[in-house]
Each structure stands twice: as structure tokens, then as C-alpha cells.
Amino acid sequence: MGSSREWARPTVDEVSDGVFRIPLPMPGNPLEAVNVYAVTSPDGVAMVDGGWAKPGAIERLEWALGKLGKRLSDIHTVLTTHFHFDHYTLAVDLKRRIGCRIALGEGERRTIDEILAGSTAVGPNSMERLLARCGVPARYTAENLFRGEGSANYMYPDVWLHDGDRFDLGRDILAVSTPGHTTGHFCFIDERAGLAFTGDHILPTITPAIGGEGPSERMPLADYLSSLQLMADRPDARLLPAHGIVAPSVHARVRELQEHHEQRLNQCLQAIGAGAGDTYDVAKALRWTRRGRRLSELAGMDQLMAVHETRFHLDVLHATGKVAVDSTGPVDRYAMA
């Protein structure tokens, strides 16, 4: 897997004895693919993450399992790291086709409730409200915001995950709560083999998005930084991510992500000190991606996600007493504390 995109090509990659990485397509998405992992045993196949219920995905999974001498009907369990469509919706499709059980973090229950109820508390409407308070022009938000999936592609899981749950999948799998990317995000650890299925919590080459659901009373970045430290405090393991290549060390990547966010917090503080008044102003003062691009150089949706991330950094700076916020108007205004 030499080039940056080779990981996304159709393959069945044995990453450990009886554990296979299967990239499934994400048509129209710049990430190109999502890694699902087939864990094989005499009892059949368990999956870590399901993939995105889009044309070609179920066929690709069926092809990959065929390479292992398995069929879709051999899948008995799908452990999903979080509720996002590229991880959960194909698991729902599999549940309807073959009756396998799905497990999902308890912290996603409110979001699943709201998706199934058609609530505006999650999805584009809630994101538009949050971005409006960040100072993003409304028309620009409406034109560029990704609309995602509808409620028809969701259902409740069979098992709500709690921190410390264990699964016997022919090997012992530990469920570890890692909120931040979403409230109910989980990583799955094979302690004996030294494997960590990290979903979108730890990715090898990109910085995971934070707070990937509707507005919450929680501080997603604070949760995320705590979850990174939790993984740093555990024994090191091979990194089996949802997007990108398998990497040798969780700890090495955690250190890089911690350093990134520390730098970003300092950059946000400097922008406020230089006179940036709202989240949108701060985001425009920062540089984005490894190429150091300006906000205006990013694609429309990427710009909105950058503003979204900036907001969560400002929340942490406010909570730690480094900046003050005035929320009395339609746009939140920041100043040095």
C-alpha cells in the first residue's frame, strides 16, 4: 500500500491471523472507501463496521467474503464504531437481509431516536443553526451542506454498547468508549493480538472530524482529547482504522493528533488576540490541511467542517478561561479573557 489511495482499492487484506481488511466503496465521497474488518472463526464471520448502503457495497463485500470461502449469510455480528452512514447503514441492510445482530454505542441512542423520528435536532437543519451562530452566511451554508442519509437507512441496534463490554468472536474483543468524533463512538480492542479497531477516532493520515452530530451540551473536543489520552494510556497496538492504511502504532498517531490540537488551540487563541471576533473570522485566520490552505481555498463542505471544528476549539478555550464569549446576539462573539 504505497500510494496514498492504494488502500481504497478492492482487496482482501489479511492484517492478522483471521482478521481481514475489506475496503468498501464510498461513491462521490473524497475519502473513496471505508475499511470494514472481517473477523473469522469456526462460528462464522463477525464484522467491525458495516459500510455505507450504496450501490456496489454489498456486492463488494460479498465478493471479498467469497475470497475467504464465506458468504454473507455467515455474518452473525456487526460491531459498529458509530452511527455515521458510512459505518452503520450497510449493517442495517445486512440485518434486514440475513438477520445478523448489530451493536452500537449507548451514546448514540439519542441521535438514533431523533433520526428515526425525523427530528431537526440532527442533520443539516441543526448544522445550519450552529453555523449561523458561528457567523457563516446562511445562503453559503445552505448551498454547501451535505444532506446525508434518511431515516429509512437506520434502525435500532440489537445491542447497546457500554464501556468494558466484551465479545467472544473466536477471540476476545473489548469495547472501549471513545467519545469525540460522535458521542457514542467506540473502539474495539483485541488485547491478545495487539489490535485496535479505531473507527474514525484515530485515523493514520487525516485529523478526524469532531462533534459529528447535532448540537449537544457536551464539548466534543474535550471528549475527544480525553479519549485520545485513554488510548495512549492503554498498551500500544496496531492501528486498524476506518479510512486509510493499517499502521504499526496507535500511540505514535495519538501523539501526533494531540500535538495537532494543542497547536490549533494556540492558533485560535492568537487569532482572537489579533481581533478575530467570531468563529468564522477565526477559521479564516487559520491554515488548513497539510498544504496550509486558506479557508477560501477549501471545497464548500470542507469549509463548513473547518468552521465547525474551529467552534469546538473555541469552546475549550472558553471553558479553560482563556477567552470570553458574548452569546446575546445572533452570532457568538469572542474576546481575550
Please characterize this protein's 3D structure:
- The protein is an alpha/beta fold and 337 residues long.
- The chain has a single domain (6-250), classed as 4-Layer Sandwich (Metallo-beta-lactamase, Chain A).
- 34% of the residues lie in helices and 20% in strands.
- It contains nine helices and 14 strands.
- The chain has helices at 57-67, 85-98, 109-116, 124-133, 138-144, 220-233, 250-273, 279-285, 300-319, and strands at residues 13-16, 19-25, 33-41, 44-48, 75-79, 101-105, 159-161, 166-168, 172-177, 186-190, 195-199, 238-241, 323-326, 333-336.
- Strands 1-2-3-4-5-6-7 form a seven-stranded mixed β-sheet, with helices on one face. A five-stranded mixed β-sheet has the order 8-9-10-11-12, with no helix packed on it.
- Strand 13 and strand 14 form a beta hairpin.
- Helix 8 (279-285) crosses helix 9.
- The longest helix has 24 residues, at 250-273.
- The chain is globular.
Distance between the termini: 48 Å
Assign the CATH topology.
Metallo-beta-lactamase, Chain A
Sequence of strands across the biggest β-sheet? 1-2-3-4-5-6-7
- Count of folded domains: 1
Q: What is the CATH C-level name?
A: Alpha Beta
CATH architecture: 4-Layer Sandwich
Taking Cα atoms only, what radius of gyration do you get, to the nearest Å? 20 Å
Q: Quote the average pLDDT.
A: 93
Structural class: alpha/beta
Poorly predicted sequence stretches spanning 5 or more consecutive residues: none
Helix/strand order, N-terminal first: EEEEHEHEHHHEEEEEHEHHHEE
Morphology call: globular
Percentage of residues in strands: 15-25%
Fraction of helical residues? 25-40%
